[in-house]
Amino acid sequence: MTQERYRDLAEWPLMATALVFLTAYAWQVVGHLEGPEAEPFEIAMWATWGIFVLDYVANLWLAKNRGRWFLWNLHELLIVALPFFRPLRLLRLVTLLSVLQRTVGETLRGRVATYVAGSAAMLVLVGALAVLDVEQHSPDAKILNFGDAAWWAITTITTVGYGDLYPVTSLGRIVASALMMSGIAVLGVVTASIASWLVQRIEENNEDVVAAAEEPVRVELAELLAEVAALRREIAELRRGQEGPEPEHA
Asked: Where are the chain's structural domains?
């Protein structure tokens, strides 16, 4: 089995696994569950984390160039090797965007709108849950509930940064850094897509203008060619008339 074939087969199961992880993680963080109440959710999260580890091993084993794949996917190794980076694994849910893209059509504007809405919502949700998880137990925490966490995530990903809420722990700042870079990446892709769309539209308009300008020229050229052909026929008839009939031989 090739790596591409494996990825096609594993896409939906991994997305379902990530949804299970998201549900268990969100329930535990927002509900402030601890002790026996949190055990089922911890088991679910560790089980899904184990599936992601197996997925990493399978990708590494099936890669054509394992050394190169390993170097180019060090972030994958960090995510599966460091349990406190578990929320980042939820970024696999962006595969939902490819499914949504097929439903909204193939236009560039449809793809951009889907990408923006889906990516922004996913990053805000994951960022809010992650920062709330690491901040809510700190004595100096500014972010104490999901509402504060969601507001902080929105102002961070949009690069507004009011400064009314901010993480005070080291892990919280790591989550903030990841959210900032992700927000910049999303905005960069959107800007590039819009610029590409504008260039495409300009080129299409230029082609239409050139085609419209060339059409009268084609008509005039065709008329001139027809006139030239008619003149040639007339000249040929005149020459035959001047030469007269051929003399008869005795």
From this structure: 1-104
